[in-house]
Amino acid sequence: TKTAASNFIQNIIADDFDTNKHGGRVHTRFPPEPNGYLHIGHAKSICLNFGIALENGGLCNLRFDDTNPSKEEVEYVESIQEDVKWLGFDWGDRMFYASDYFEKLYQFAVKLINEGKAYVCDLSPEEIREYRGTLTQPGKESPYRSRSREVNLALFERMRAGEFEDGSRVLRAKIDMASPNLNMRDPVLYRILRATHHRTGDKWCIYPMYDYAHPLSDALEKITHSICTCEFEDHRPLYDWALEAVDTEYRPQQIEFARLNLSYTVMSKRKLRQLVEENHVSGWDDPRMPTISGLRRRGYTPESIRDFCERIGVAKAVSMVDLALLEHCIREDLNIRAPRVMAVLNPLKVIIENYPEGQVEELEAEYNSENPELGSRKIPFSRIVYIEQDDFMEEPPKKFFRLYPGSEVRLKHAYIIKCERVVKDEQGRIVEIYCTYDPDTKSGSGTSTKKVKGTLHWVSAEHAVKAEVRLYDRLFTKENPDEGADFKTFLNPDSLKLLGNCMVEPSLAKAAPGSRFQFLRHGYFSIDAKDSNENKLVFNRIVSLKDSWAK
Ligand code: ATP
Ligand code: MG
Ligand code: MG
């Protein structure tokens, strides 16, 4: 398997150690903008940044990139911390906010103005765009580009003091309007924006742009390797320009890698927020969401997500990862770890007519035949049990090895039963099945050598606990919902199926919220930590048993 040690970024770091480029240090950061909940794509970045630091004896900061006050909220700051911790990473005492640096960033800007490297521009946003030119056409210099140092300093101070309207002026870098790289054509460094910031309140009415704040925040934190996704490759010259123009003590280096795209999923926070706000899902932590909180609530383990991030590897080339791989990772993890229990999702009553009325047997049942360490529990067996409706057919096709009139099957951990007859209601629907059992076939201790082809899961009717089970399917029907029409037109109308009448074995009644099980023959399920309570058991299907991942 691939480890972070074998990716191209680790190779760069190894070279940097050899040349002593960063004084033998490795210091990375994970820099989320607190404008939404983290998703599985962020998990890739978290595993990479924290992983690189861990493997090289370095450090990784958590930095909130909070330079965009209108879109940011405290709720997101909190959820991000919870998610990073849950994934298993520790930033120690190195949690920072870009907003901590607002004063320093302002002073750096003053320095740039003083050195003739930045100017206040009065062009409107439309004019700035127009003047910028295109890939085939050089840009045009702003008429304000030649303002004197003194005028610029005074105007920038007045911008900060709140003397000008939002959007009426900006501070721009003075670089090169003819640069083949559009990002270098005098990019905006500061804008005027009256919005209450989640930390600095109304203290500021000018805010630094990402391309200015990010390299300087990295430098202030003495980051060595600033790892970001490939869409910032064209911004790297500007990243380096800012460090050089300000003449920072530390010179971090930006390295880009391909962002994760997952099939049948959208990943941008903007789109995920739309799903939440327009009630297509129940919230950011809806178990169908690709958010870390959604995956957690669904029942995914942090180990499975870290394993997934390791398997997909880190490269420069953009690709689409099959959702089946993520599902494969959780199956691999839970196969051994999860207790295997019995739950009947669509119950059909079976009466075992030769079993004494009122008798209850406690059957010893191991939790996981592949993992004896999980031990066993007792399950009650009695005269009336529930089996799965799908496990009975009155007129079965060939090779149907389950229950039908005259057939014999084993009830898991219990006895072999034989179907004697079917009882229907007035509409012709099957309501109950009468069977007989063979007392010599008790699992583990029976004397009979009888063999049957089918084994069914079941629960004792008198002892079973009622539960709601939520079956999830992929949220979108199209492999790439970002392609073509509006992504919401590809929402899967059947992504949630509610089963309100399930019967589960009594050992599950007191299971802890969030705990995970294999329901025999069905898949992996977890107790919904939000909606499940003493009066109502709610299970989420994490994933079915059938693995469609092509190894
Ligand atoms: P979105 O478009 O979903 O809002 P973003 O990149 O704007 O994503 P940030 O909060 O800025 O979101 O991301 C924090 C870090 O996570 C960045 O370094 C970013 O490159 C990385 N990241 C975001 N999405 C992905 C992804 N799909 N795959 C890998 N890394 C990602
Ligand atoms: Mg971003
Ligand atoms: Mg974004």
TrEMBL record:
Keywords assigned: Aminoacyl-tRNA synthetase, ATP-binding, Cytoplasm, Ligase, Nucleotide-binding, Protein biosynthesis
UniProt xrefs under CDD domains: GlnRS_core
Catalysed reactions, semicolon-separated: tRNA(Gln) + L-glutamine + ATP = L-glutaminyl-tRNA(Gln) + AMP + diphosphate
EC number: 6.1.1.18
Residue span of motif 'HIGH' region: 32-42
Broad class of the protein's primary localization: cytoplasm
List of residues binding ATP: 33-35, 39-45, 229, 259-260, 267-269
Gene expressing this chain: glnS
Locus of motif 'KMSKS' region: 266-270
Gene3D superfamilies (alphabetical): Glutamyl-trna Synthetase, Domain 2 (1.10.1160.10), Glutamyl-tRNA Synthetase, Domain 3 (3.90.800.10), HUPs (3.40.50.620), Ribosomal Protein L25, Chain P (2.40.240.10)
Alphabetical list of Pfam families matching this protein: tRNA-synt_1c, tRNA-synt_1c_C, tRNA-synt_1c_C2
Subunit details: Monomer.
Limits of the Glutamyl/glutaminyl-tRNA synthetase class Ib catalytic domain: 26-335
Annotated tRNA synthetases class I (E and Q) anti-codon binding domain residues: 455-528
Protein localization: Cytoplasm
InterPro entries: Gln-tRNA-synth, Gln/Glu-tRNA_Ligase, Gln_tRNA_ligase_bac, Glu/Gln-tRNA-synth, Glu/Gln-tRNA-synth_Ib_cat-dom, Glu/Gln-tRNA-synth_Ib_codon-bd, Glu_tRNA_lig_a-bdl, Rbsml_bL25/Gln-tRNA_synth_N
Ranges of residues in domain Glutamyl/glutaminyl-tRNA synthetase class Ib anti-codon binding: 338-438
Gene Ontology biological process terms in this record: glutaminyl-tRNA aminoacylation; glutamyl-tRNA aminoacylation
Entry similarity comment: Belongs to the class-I aminoacyl-tRNA synthetase family.
Name under which the protein is recorded: Glutamine--tRNA ligase
GO molecular function annotations of the record: ATP binding; glutamine-tRNA ligase activity
